[in-house]
What we know:
Keywords: ATP-binding, Nucleotide-binding, Periplasm, Signal. It holds the Pfam family SBP_bac_8. It is found in: Periplasm. It is a single chain. The N terminus is likely disordered. The chain is of the alpha+beta class. Helix 8 packs across helix 17. The longest helix has 18 residues. It has a five-stranded mixed beta sheet. The protein has a three-stranded antiparallel beta sheet with strand order 9-8-10.
Amino acid sequence: MNKLNRRHFLGASGSVLALAAMGRPAFAQNTQIRHFWWGNPERDKRTFAVIDIYNEKTPGVTVVGETLGFADYFTKLTTQIAGGNMPDVIQQGYGVLFEYIANGAVVPLDEYIGNSLDISKIDQSAIDAGTVDGKFYALSIGANSHMAMYNTRMFEEAGVVPGETFDPYAYTYDELAEFAATIKDATGVPGTDDNTADYQNFSDFVVQKGAMLYNEDGSYGPTQEIVEEYWSTWEKIRNAGGTPPAQETAGLAGVSELSQMGVVTGNTAMTYLWSNQLVGVQSLMEDKLGVATYPNTPDMVPGSVIQPSQFVCLTRDSSDPEAATAYMSAFVNDLEMTKVLGLERGIPSQSEVRAALQPDLTEVEALSVEYFDKIQGSTAALPPPPPSGSNEVEQTFERLAVAVLLEQRSIPEVASDFLRQANAILRRA
């Protein structure tokens, strides 16, 4: 396994470039920068708009945007890596960052700091999150955490009132089973998605049980007992009538498109996503959304973390790294551009940008900020990015969870099979 040490950022000294109007570096004529991200209709609209702003402000540089849905993004990126034709700037997630650094697909940004790249007002926590083995690789474009999103109308119709019937920031799986069934009885719509195959929820559950998803040595952390308990917990909620039928849930295993989420399609009253997706989900709905944390065990040990929702990274195939990093810098610092981006990718990690956005937040954006305020101090510590092979482990979890949903094998048998395969994947990665 190709292992990297825990991050340790070495701060750059000296002055940094101010990115005020007319203060951008001069570039050769006809420089083209390709920016590739995974998106959704709302994210794509905003990102193409800021690309237009940047192109107007930067004569001689043309940024070209490329976007795919999350399910296809990394497949396309893998093909580009193999072909040596990656875009200059790519969007990355914290969970896969180590893999792309280890295979050389993204390169350090240190030499550009204070020149084409300004990080002077970026939160130190965000800088630390993008720093691996003492080198700065990844520029945070928003902070993020796990979030449950629920249809307020359905909850109200069922008499499930936040702050009265349940605490949206401290409720248990047992409480979820009860009020999800209540919502189904009152509205005909199951009260919650079934997260049997949801690896995000599973990762929180592992930490809530006092374990780590990946141990410091890169080995897998969950025990047989934890895996069994997680699947049994959701089996109990399902048997109580709080979720859609198991076969329906199995058909959605691994699906990440927002338009297919249960709270969007109206097939459930609550869906579990990342907090930066709140704006995109609300844009697809008429009913107002409410927010809550993921459910917890009775001990209420924090399971979710606050982490960068996404980064922008410079690839090894960039034809003009200075022009690419200047664009990346503007993407997080330019107040006109960041006003358009808003909070769609998460809470900005740049202090001046947050202050500038505050007066003009929409109702759903303000809800996102309020959520972040309320979870401060009640989240788990941010672990190192997962090791190589973690994506395959997640896919294996989703695939085998379908066997649990369809009752093809017993939970203990599937749990044992999953752990055997997960450990084998990590050993050979």
